[in-house]
Amino acid sequence: MTIRQAMVLAAGLGTRMRPITDTIPKPLVKIDGKPMIDYALDSLVAAGVERAAVNVHHHAHQMLDHLRNYPGLDIIISDEREALMNSGGGLAKGLKLLTRENIFVMNADLFWIGEQPGRATNLERLAGFFDAARMDMALLCVRIEDTTGHNGKNDFGMAADGRLTRYRDDPSNPVVYAGAIVMNPSLLDDAPQDAFNLNIYFDKAIASGRLFGMVLDGHWLTVGTPAAIGEAEETIRRLRAFA
């Protein structure tokens, strides 16, 4: 199954990245010479996505300039300059700009490297894994030993079939949420109109046994502080040398 549309969550303030984010939005901070959001956008293009909604707030004019010049995607802006909507509210607002077909949801500041050449990408595999009859959402996940820059906390326990529960409830096969989802937009038809956290829908899906995950291929990076930039770039260089 090829998914042709996506929502990229890119409106956060990046407070932990200050003072860098005093003058630049976090998604445009460069890691190994490339803005963080471009890792996400490039992954979407490689998976066959044609149109993406991207929400903006902090230093929005810089985001607009960058996105206007990004090749390969029809990018629609979900404008949150008047009020931040948090992850769930931002997604619900952005979905109104897209169709009712299945969608990728991506965080703009989390990315992965080192996918095996010659096989389907992580996003292509996630799209194939998603089964709307059994799942509300399919989450891309990663084992903590395959992360750089993470805080060391696991998010979910994963059953053999990929069903997810909160880690506190099932620590037997721990994974970290890697910032990519496949879902159908109808899931948020009942969403609040104001700001809310997407974790509300994770918990709803868990309660009905409909939250599933798939482990990514490669190495996952998150860059939350200025000090983490060097660590991420060193990891990229090291893994590239062994590729």
From TrEMBL:
Keywords: Nucleotidyltransferase, Transferase. Transmembrane segments: none annotated. InterPro entries: GlmU-like, NTP_transferase_dom, Nucleotide-diphossugar_trans. It comes from the Bacteria. SUPFAM superfamilies: Nucleotide-diphospho-sugar transferases (SSF53448). GO terms for molecular function: nucleotidyltransferase activity. Residues 6-236 form the Nucleotidyl transferase domain. The keyword Transferase applies. The keyword Transmembrane helix does not apply. Signal peptide: none annotated. This is Mannose-1-phosphate guanylyltransferase. It comes from Rhizobium leguminosarum bv. trifolii. The lineage of its organism: Bacteria, Pseudomonadati, Pseudomonadota, Alphaproteobacteria, Hyphomicrobiales.
